[in-house]
Specification:
The structure is a single chain. The chain has 174 residues and is of the alpha+beta class. Helices cover 37% and strands 16% of the residues. The protein contains four helices and five strands, in the order H-E-E-E-H-H-H-E-E. Helix 3 (102-116) packs antiparallel against helix 4 (123-140).
Amino acid sequence: MPVLVGAIDKTKEEAFGRILAPYLASADTFLVVSSDFCHWGTRFSYTFYFPQYPPGSSPSSPVRLSRSAALPREVSTFPIHESISALDHEAMELLTLPPSTAHQAHTSFAEYLVRTKNTICGRHPIGVLLGALTALQDEHSKSPHIQWVRYEQSSKCFTIKDSSVSYASAYISF
């Protein structure tokens, strides 16, 4: 059964997740949630650059790159495509279960999206999935595991003229 999820808030993601949770709990259900990750470039109106930061800490303040301004000097040692990858991998880490619960992951992911403005087009379907997993944890004592298996970018961005779409794949097991 195809389900299309539009632009909804976190409360509605949780509510729709609760509705879909029994289907996800059923052994004869196979669920696919599809989403690209970062859409980077002027054609996507997203040109944020996050200077390199050590793993496990929060990234420094983003810089919005533009055609009219020089690139930050950090770009020579931490290229744009690596910044995009770090940005996406932060989201992937937040969405990995365990160590956090589905509810904690949902809250952290929502906060991440506000902070980074990352252009993850399937952020709301991911939110609905996290709402369903929260209901399964809370109401059905299920222990979901989300494992990431692949990450790619359509191209490596080095300049403001470049663009890229990121792709990440994960699976859920109980």
